[in-house]
Amino acid sequence: xxxxxxxxxxxxxxxxxxxxxxxxxxxxxxxxxxxxxxxxxxxxxxxxxxxxxxxxxxxxxxxxxxxxxxxxxxxxxxxxxxxxxxxxxxxxxxxxxxxxxxxxxxxxxxxxxxxxxxxxxxxxxxxxxxxxxxxxxxxxxxxxxxxxxxxxxxxxxxxxxxxxxxxxxxxxxxxxxxxxxxxxxxxxxxxxxxxxxxxxxxxxxxxxxxxxxxxxxxxxxxxxxxxxxxxxxxxxxxxxxxxxxxxxxxxxxxxxxxxxxxxxxxxxxxxxxxxxxxxxxxxxxxxxxxxxxxxxxxxxxxxxxxxxxxxxxxxxxxxxxxxxxxxxxxxxxxxxx
Length: 337
Known about the structure:
about 40% helix; BirA Bifunctional Protein, domain 2; alpha+beta; rod-shaped
């Protein structure tokens, strides 16, 4: 065995490896050259018959042969595997990877259902911007200059005097400024307040507000029947509704509307703060001073109401904590699929 023979074997082995077209061919060549009974191990064993003066050079040549062939085999395997993976990515004959159809979020479902229910009673949908003026959000709604809701601790203000609306009532002001009575609208939308987040409160939430204004007499009894009908349509006949006297600057008389607690069924729990009820809506007859501020006739009749969408969703779906609606946890959201 001579060094020329070793060089010739190396050249032939590398050529065969480079021209191999599949992993099976490469494996065959590995066994042929590097296997236990392969050509290179036999050549390494034959080194003992080489003259002593040639052994150093022969050893170096054989080591080079073994390393080059081993490296070439590894590189070829990697190359073939990468090529197969890339070609498979563009195999258009493979079946499609279908995803399950999405479903509406509980908040969107409640808004859509509320629009349907009030639509049956003659209400149409109105919309407005999230960034509002102080006049539309406070002044036109008869909110006193010293009212705590105007404080920076309760409202998100901008440097130019505008603010993130704290309620969707400014939409009602915009509608009344743009059209004459009769007005019968609902205005669902997002609101912003500096509330501390807990099981029933959040700094970012949704409201649905309604407004009915006409020259035809309308009373608090009409308002109560409207909201009671909505509650039973939305939540079912089992839900109880409670009206409590209250004060709001934009309505007189005013009431707060409570629905029976969905968690404890009225017996008292941490969600309803042991009262058995959850506050859902504020309502009342529109204060004549609101009409005056926007240029309406103060002798008009009308009522207004506003309710929290998240709280309605909690009662309807039995959700114990409002924060679940905003965690984007698929384990929770998949329950509504």
